Amino acid sequence: MNKMIAFGAAAVVALAIGQATADEEAELVIDGQAFVTKLDAPDDSPLPEILSGWRFRNSETQELQTDDFENPAMIFAEYGEELWATAEGETGKSCADCHGDASESMRGLRASMPRWHEGKDTLFTLEDHINWSREEHQKAKPWKWESQEMLAMTAYIGLQSRGMPVAVKTDGKAAPWFEKGKELYYTRVGQLDMACAHCHENNYGNMIRADHLSQGQINGFPVYRLKWQGMGSLHRRFKGCMDNIRATPYKRGSDEFTALELYLASRGQGLSVETPSLRN
Ligand code: HEC
Ligand code: HEC
Question: If pLDDT is split at 50, 70 and 90, which confidence band does 209 have?
Answer without folding.
Answer: confident
